[in-house]
């Protein structure tokens, strides 16, 4: 059995257990609260593999809870703090991206993260992985101890059981996959509340985005029983059910409020149409959608509130230039979004402040656009960068590069690993949000900028 803590609110918590035995699960929590354990959801027939959602309710705000999950002779424990029910309690959170594809983590990023969670003041209450929780599409498992073997890479086999086995490996279920067994990684999984987006590799590399660089493009398979449907079913079983609730039923994009911060996490996989004019001879242009108008309207309307001072849009890829940028690959949709953003006082830096945070690039960098700042969340996988050409980038919307830490993909000897530490000083006047780039090996603060509530055009300062 392995477990992963998911979304936590002021009064509830969710986690998922992955089991390879039909024995019943028991759960305990202290202080005492209501517990609900869903029936096993079998994902693989033989050997047996199932997921189970465990929910706690009736919790008290800003209170530490200790829990244990038991199956047979195995007991796993964890601890978390519920969210405050006010907008004056200071707190912090971690935002990261791309947990792979390195087989191990030589920089010990999760050890650094665990140390931060145990020592940080104000406390770290939440984590978001925006894009690529795992590169499940191209992963393969051959675990002689349990007998679980994939028939190939899930993106090639289109077999739901292969996706399920690879997600179970991500949980740390198989001793043959040492990266996911690391003690500090497992500690983070059990003790830090988490919301996430799957990224393009939850289906297949660049699924429905078109080919980029060295990737093999598997096309855009949204047919009934096709690649997307198969992959989404396994994502929902292992991660989707424990995420924050979606903004619209049957969608993957979700929102989250913590104190004076409102976040919205977008989904590219379900609605993106490939930008490349040569994909399958379709003649599609860069005016194709990435998020779709319904999702954009839902997200922007939800963020457009005066109830929270700061709004964060979490995007699975960049706003402009490098990787798979929104503006250059889907120019009409992105330009219309930017016009809409600038027209809303609650988002444009007059009555409220807006921050853009994105993943996918395997680098740490920050760009000051004309009316907001964008931050790339680094990489958890201690990987070579896919943003190595940052110095050559010409950014849209008047963007200027403020910071970069990157490497030359496959040609250099520098790994890039780390994450964002977002500190919300809700007790200050004016309230501020500080964003720090944390080096995955040393824990060093490599770059830091702060936005004060009321900052004109959402601009950060030293």
Ends apart, CA distance between termini: 46 Å
What is the CATH domain class of the largest domain? Alpha Beta
User: Shape from CA axes?
Assistant: globular
* Helix count from the secondary structure assignment: 8
**CATH H-level homologous superfamily name of the largest domain:** Alkaline phosphatase D (PhoD)
Number of domains: 2
Secondary structure category: alpha+beta
Radius of gyration: 21 Å
Number of E strands? 23
* Residue windows where pLDDT falls under 50 for at least 5 positions: none
CATH topology-level fold name of the largest domain: Purple Acid Phosphatase, chain A, domain 2
Average predicted confidence as pLDDT: 91
Helix content: 10-25%
**Strand order across the largest sheet:** 14-15-16-17-19-18-20
Q: Tell me which CATH architecture of the largest domain applies here.
A: 4-Layer Sandwich
Fraction in beta strands: 25-35%
What profile does the largest beta sheet have?
7 strands, mixed
């Amino acid at each position: 059995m392995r477990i992963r803590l998911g979304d936590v609110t002021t009064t509830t918590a969710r986690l998922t257990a992955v089991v390879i035995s039909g024995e019943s699960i028991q759960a305990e929590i202290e202080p005492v609260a209501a517990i609900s354990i869903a029936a096993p959801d079998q994902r693989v027939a033989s050997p047996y593999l199932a997921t189970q959602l465990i929910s706690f309710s009736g919790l008290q705000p800003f209170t530490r809870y200790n829990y244990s999950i038991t199956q047979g002779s195995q007991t796993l424990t964890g601890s978390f703090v519920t969210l405050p029910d006010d907008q004056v309690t200071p707190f912090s959170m971690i935002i990261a991206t791309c947990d792979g594809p390195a087989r191990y983590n030589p920089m010990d990023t999760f050890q650094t993260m665990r140390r931060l969670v145990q020592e940080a003041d104000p406390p770290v209450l939440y984590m978001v992985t925006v894009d690529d929780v795992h590169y499940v599409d191209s992963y393969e498992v051959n675990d002689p101890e349990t007998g679980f073997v994939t028939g190939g890479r899930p993106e090639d086999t289109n077999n739901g059981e292969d996706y399920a086995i690879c997600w179970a490996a991500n949980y740390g279920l198989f001793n043959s996959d040492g990266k996911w067994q690391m003690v500090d990684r497992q500690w983070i999984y059990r003790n830090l509340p988490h919301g996430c987006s799957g990224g393009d590799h939850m289906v297949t590399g660049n699924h429905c985005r078109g080919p980029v660089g060295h990737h093999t493009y598997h096309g855009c398979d949204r047919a009934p029983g096709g690649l997307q449907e198969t992959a989404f079913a396994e994502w929902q079983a292992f991660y989707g059910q424990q995420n924050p609730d979606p903004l619209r039923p049957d969608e993957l994009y979700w929102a989250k409020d913590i104190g004076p911060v409102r976040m919205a996490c977008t989904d590219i996989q379900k609605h993106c149409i490939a930008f490349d004019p040569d994909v399958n001879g379709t003649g599609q242009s860069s005016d194709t959608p990435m998020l779709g108008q319904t999702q954009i309207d839902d997200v922007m309307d939800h963020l457009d509130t005066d109830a929270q001072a700061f709004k964060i849009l979490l995007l699975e890829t960049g706003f402009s230039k490098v990787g798979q940028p929104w503006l250059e690959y889907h120019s009409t949709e992105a330009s219309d979004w930017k016009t809409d953003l600038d027209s809303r006082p609650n988002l444009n830096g007059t009555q409220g402040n807006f921050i853009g945070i994105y993943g996918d690039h395997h680098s740490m960098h920050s760009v000051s656009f004309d009316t907001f700042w964008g931050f790339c969340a680094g990489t958890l996988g201690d990987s070579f960068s896919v943003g190595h050409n940052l110095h050559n980038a010409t950014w849209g919307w008047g963007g200027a590069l403020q910071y970069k830490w990157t490497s030359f993909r496959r040609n250099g000897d520098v790994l890039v690993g780390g994450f964002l530490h977002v500190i919300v000083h809700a007790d200050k006047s004016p309230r501020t949000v500080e964003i720090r780039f944390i080096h995955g090996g040393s824990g060093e603060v490599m770059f830091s900028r702060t936005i004060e509530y009321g900052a004109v055009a959402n601009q950060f300062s030293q």
